[in-house]
Amino acid sequence: MHPTRSRAGKAVIPAAGLGTRFLPATKATPKEMLPVVDKPAIQYVVEEAVAAGLDDVLLVTGRNKRALEDHFDRAHELEWMLSSRGDEQRLARVRESSELAAMHYVRQGDPLGLGHAVLCARAHVGDNPFAVLLGDDLIDERDPLLPRMLDVQQQYGGSVVALMEVDPAQIRQYGCAAVKPTGDDDLVEIVDLVEKPDPEQAPSNLAVIGRYVLAPEIFDVLAETGADGRGEIQLTDALRKLALDAETPVHGVLFDGRRYDTGDRGDYLRAVVRLACEREDLGPEFSQWLLDYATQELAPRMPAGN
């Protein structure tokens, strides 16, 4: 029987990336502020953290990220205008983002990778477990991945990462886990991690996706982890050191739910379409238009046999 452990209470969201895959749209707009239907991607991530009970949120930002802070701040002139017009529905939606959580910000002065971004959160997090949510990974609210990870960390201690099966040919795009089973179907113990391996050298097809619940010991390991060939400190490398240490377990929660990678242009567009189709206010009309467009305009262009 394990002693009762404190549950993670803070969330860290790294948001300092340049978003080069979306240029020129991200030349002056942070990629995290790109709209997914009618909310910026970053708001979905903050809402996920809050729904899991993490209402203290630290954004790790960089240059040209002022729009992130403005989005989660009050917009007094806009609120006054909407209030004076009696537009209570839009007023509530505008205020929603500024009332979600206690928002904090820290700058990542140099682009030294995800591990360094997490290390920037040390002073805010302190000596407690905490969650890390990557800002371009959206997890559907109907698939409660983060609460399960928080439960696992509280039960077993150590750190917890989210794992998802991917096509073996795509494993080179991810951190990859070598695992052994536990008594739970959705839970494994991680015995090794490899960052972006060649498919033939990958220990599995289990990819690390953008959700972590980390023990505070990660900070000391990150501080000692050297930069890789690209000059970045990799979180995967630090987690590997913990996984190889028998005293600091690293578990993986297997996720097979709905995930949207808004850092990829194709997945971003698919996320917008899927979420729009599922909206009560937009879905029926938009879905019918999409069906008509696919059958009347797209289908005739498709090569025979497809």
Automatic annotation (TrEMBL):
It is an enzyme of class 2 (transferase). The keyword Nucleotidyltransferase applies. Its EC number is 2.7.7.9. It comes from the Bacteria. It holds the Pfam family NTP_transferase. The keyword Transport does not apply. InterPro entries: GalU_uridylyltTrfase_bac/arc (IPR005771), NTP_transferase_dom (IPR005835), Nucleotide-diphossugar_trans (IPR029044). Keywords: Nucleotidyltransferase, Transferase. It catalyses: alpha-D-glucose 1-phosphate + UTP + H(+) = UDP-alpha-D-glucose + diphosphate. Residues 10-273 form the Nucleotidyl transferase domain. GO terms for biological process: UDP-alpha-D-glucose metabolic process. GO terms for molecular function: UTP:glucose-1-phosphate uridylyltransferase activity. NCBIfam families: galU (TIGR01099). Belongs to the UDPGP type 2 family. This is UTP--glucose-1-phosphate uridylyltransferase. It comes from Yinghuangia soli.
